[in-house]
Design a protein that fits this description.
The protein has 343 residues and is of the alpha+beta class. The chain has 6 helices and 21 strands. A hairpin with a 5-residue loop joins strand 13 and strand 14.
Length: 343
């Protein structure tokens, strides 16, 4: 009987592991459960790893390292946080944003300075932050910032949500930030989306002509040369997304190639024959005045006062100002339909 024990041990060692698990109900529960648990954990880990890899492949991150700052526009009164709308935001906040959308919509507005990633923004203020992104194909991205308390996103001057849609070519992305007195906002923004790691941030190279440029890009309108040919008055316009035209005026000295004056509106200025001076109308304390502007010195001079309201045209010599008056608007000045000399 002594050889029996070694023979049994040999047989036990040669039995496959799965056979041991089915040998008896009492001894098979624990090993079977353990084996199942190990397999389940391994599958779960593999799935999580695979999911993480897929997410990385689909969504890339573009960190916005710098942008153009428009502002700040400091708030003149404290925010009334006790009065909120259905969205839980104060009414004054929405009103302040609405009054300052030009910080992100006006393409002719010049930036205050460049803001760098990690730089603090003024509290109790509204700012416009703009940057450009060049992509090769249609894509969408999420605008993410954990260090800006409240901001609205604009794409090419149009308000969008935190998910933005980019066309091939260059896109301007703007953030209208709202920082109450309690805010400690920092410029830290990133774009998360497919192929965003391949996107170009603030590319200095000229952009390709896109559909957006064709419809809403800036266009030349007209120009007026001074009598001597030294000064050039140029007008440009852009068509906003509401279908209205926004104009700007640029006065340039062609001899020095220096820009003398810029304006974000259409300036109704006129050159007079034989003079490098501009004539225009203005209103001062309710009084309509005819002014002259010398481009060489930028000095202005009042030529005539108490002028009628209406459309003005100067004679070629500049000696007479002819007005077309709307009688329905100003009935009391019907007798003023005469020519007046500004000299």
């Amino acid at each position: 009987m002594k050889p029996t024990l070694p023979l049994f041990l040999m047989a036990l060692c040669t039995v496959p592991l799965c056979a041991v698990g089915t040998k008896s109900a009492s001894s098979s529960d624990a090993p079977s459960t353990a084996a199942h648990t190990v397999t389940s954990t391994s599958d779960s880990t593999q799935k999580k790893a695979k999911k993480s890899i897929d997410s990385t492949a689909i969504n890339d991150t573009l960190h916005v390292t710098s942008a153009q700052l428009y502002g700040p526009v400091h708030l003149q009164s404290p925010v009334w946080e006790d009065s909120v709308n259905s969205d839980g935001k104060s009414y004054e906040e929405d009103e302040v944003k609405e009054l300052n959308t030009h910080l992100v919509e006006n393409k002719n507005l010049r930036p205050t300075r460049t803001v760098q990633q990690g730089e603090a923004l003024d509290s109790n203020s509204v700012n416009g932050i703009r940057f450009t992104v060049d992509v090769a194909r249609w894509t969408q991205a999420q605008v993410v910032s954990r260090k800006l308390q409240d901001f609205d996103t604009y794409v090419n001057g149009v308000s969008q949500g935190k998910t933005i849609y980019l066309r091939p070519g260059r896109t301007e992305i703007a953030l209208l930030t709202y920082s109450p007195a309690s805010a400690r906002d920092t410029f830290d923004v990133k774009l998360v989306g497919k192929d965003m790691a391949k996107a170009l941030l603030n590319n200095p190279q000229p952009s390709t002509f896109s559909y957006e440029d064709m419809i809403h890009g800036e266009k030349f309108y007209t120009m007026k040369m001074s009598p001597s040919g030294r000064y050039l008055l140029t007008y440009y316009y852009t068509t906003n997304h509401e279908g209205k035209n926004d104009y700007r005026t640029v006065l340039t000295d062609l001899h020095t190639q220096r820009t003398i004056y810029r304006s974000d509106k259409y300036e109704s200025w006129t050159w007079i024959d034989g003079q490098d001076k501009l004539y225009y109308e203005t209103q001062q304390d309710g009084d309509n005045q005819l002014m002259s502007l010398d481009p060489a010195t930028l000095e202005t001079k009042v030529l005539a006062t108490n002028l009628p309201e209406g459309t003005m045209a100067l004679s070629p010599t500049g000696k007479f100002a002819i007005y077309l008056i709307d009688e329905d608007v100003q009935e009391s000045r019907r007798g003023a339909q005469t020519t007046q000399s500004p000299r």
